[in-house]
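Morning, I've got a small favour to ask if you have a moment. It would help a lot if you went through both lines with me. I owe you a coffee for this, so here goes:
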Amino acid sequence: MFPPDPNFAPNATGHPFPRDPSAPQPEPSGPPRDEEAPVTHGILRRVVIGVVVLIVVIVAFRLLAPHVGFLGDTWEKVRQGDPVWLVVAVVLEVLSFAGYVWVFNATARRSGLRLPRFTSWRIVLAGVAATRLLATAGAGGIASTTFALRRQGLDARHAAATVTAQIAITYVWFIALIAIFGVVLFGLGHGHAAITIIPAGIAVAIIAVAIAGRPLLRKLADRTSEREGRVARLLASIPGTLDDAVHTVTTLVKERDLAVVGGALWWIADGAVLWAACHAFGASPNVLDVFMAYLLGQVANLLPVPGGLGVEAGLLGMLIAFGVTGGVAVLASLTQRLVSTWLPAIPGAIALAAIGKPSPDAEIVAVDEDDPPPGRTAATA
């Protein structure tokens, strides 16, 4: 699928793994030439635009609030807000990022790459900044993280599989949490079926289709592994990359690697920021209601709105649907986005600008492949 990489070789089963670091290595041929750094020169401009838009929204809200009945006491709520809960929200967001770094390190390690902690945080901050600031269903984060892994020494295929595995872990948890919270809330009689059991049913169906489709994905990966031509090989690499990612995830699960839980921590801690924001402004909604509102609101991140501003509307609508008063819902949704998007935006933008800088302490290590995907041969590597 991809040109062979000098740091990887097929083992007896044909599945590629990093060469023994103590063995003689070929002379480095310089940085990878098949990829260019993702465009980052406009990221600071996007940060500024997003902040300006957020300020305009707040100012407009301030001017309109006295003239809208259910928003009349909103600024009184701001003055009476509890700053302790805002500090809690920031701590929860740091915990959320720690969960994603946990997943990132585990999947990179399964591909044969060990990174120092600072480098892992830098790459994750850059990827999340690209995802949240560009809000193109994660495409910016995928590109920047893949490029960073390539610069740290992974070959193209393993870098792509690593990123895909990270996405698989986090979004399987996202879908599973929607299913769990939806069923529980419907059973408790909280919220309309349209925002509880129906999303839960859709989530269960997605998981079922993904599980049932694994054998088909494996067959497709095997059949397309030897396509000729650059474009054909690129398209043919997609099933193999997805299969590699699934293999990484299942291996981590079989090994009972607790890093898999980091995917749940990423969503739960970030959702808890919204819950803390509600408490900061005097509301005490049911925690399950807030989490479901958060999860459904995140679906708006698929909209191509700079800064993920579509999420604010989604969070606001879902909070109101679950019974949170309009004034608190507005403040809580804005606060959640401020903490989760704009506070990490500046360090994320700086990290994104330096995404191509390789770490001198990054290490390529041998990986045990006791259970390689069946049917994979050296030719498919």
Residues 7 and 24 are 11 Å apart (CA to CA). The radius of gyration is 22 Å. Strands lie at 8-10, 16-18, 113-114, 363-364. Residues 1-34, 371-381 have pLDDT under 50 and may be disordered.
